[in-house]
Amino acid sequence: MATRVLIADDQTLVRTGFRLILDADPGIEVIAEAADGESAVRPARKLRPDVTLMDVRMPRLDGIRATGLLAGPRVDDPLRVVVVTTYDIDENVYAALLAGACGFLLKDAGPRLLVEAVHAATKGEAMVSPSVTVRLLAHFTGGARAGGRPRRDPGLPLTSRELDVVLAAARGRTNAEIATDLGVSLSTVKTHLASVQGKLGARNRTEIAVWAWERRLLG
């Protein structure tokens, strides 16, 4: 079954371009478009797309608040939202991650990454450029100013290997890349991530990354 996508962006050209790119993939179907956050929330709740691509700056209801309504911590059955932004350092994107977005993508990332972002979100992963992840999270959590080596607090509720997986995920590594880096199987990485989510109360790998950066675990 094709992955069903809703596109929310106030620019007609952006929505049209995204639709053309996504519809060219046989595994993706664009089921709706919206020109503002308010117009996105209603159909998203009704149609329940597998993934919603959400612009940050839109009229009537911005993408951050719309994301919170669809994927926020108080939503009983949250949807998967990928925030799309023009800016690689943007406090609105960070706020959107905290509001429940499972990832974010730059608008100029290119067709291939757009498609990969949708497929990744469907699998519960976040397609985020590693360089953008590090700069964005470090900028807003103070991690960039921490300096020195990663701080491994003995009071952390994670095992040493779980922490290795967390640090890799926080740097934007995919599950497959983490498995290769650590010399373990893909299923082992997924098991560790599931365990970490349970221990931290995180809903996805993006929240795990935010948790790691807020505690300055990365040097």
Examine the coordinates and then state which fold CATH places here, giving the name of the CATH topology of the largest domain. Rossmann fold
Number of E-state strands:
5
Q: What is the CATH architecture assignment of the largest domain? A: 3-Layer(aba) Sandwich
Helix percentage range:
40-55%
Q: Give the low-pLDDT segments.
A: 143-152
CATH superfamily of the largest domain: Response regulator
The termini sit apart by 42 Å
| Rg (CA only) | 17 Å
Structural class: alpha/beta
Helix count from the secondary structure assignment: 10
Sheet bearing the most strands, described? 5 strands, parallel
Apparent shape: globular
- The tally of structural domains comes to 2
Order of helices and strands: EHEHEHEHEHHHHHH
Query: Which CATH class of the largest domain is shown?
Result: Alpha Beta
Give the integer mean of the pLDDT values: 83
Strand order, largest beta sheet = 2-1-3-4-5
Beta-strand content estimate: 5-15%
Topology at a glance:
Layout: E1 3-8, H1 12-23, E2 28-34, H2 37-47, E3 51-55, H3 63-71, E4 81-85, H4 91-98, E5 103-106, H5 111-122, H6 130-141, H7 160-170, H8 175-182, H9 186-200, H10 205-214
Parallel strand pairs: 1-2, 1-3, 3-4, 4-5
Helix pairs in contact: 2-3, 3-4, 7-9, 7-10, 8-9
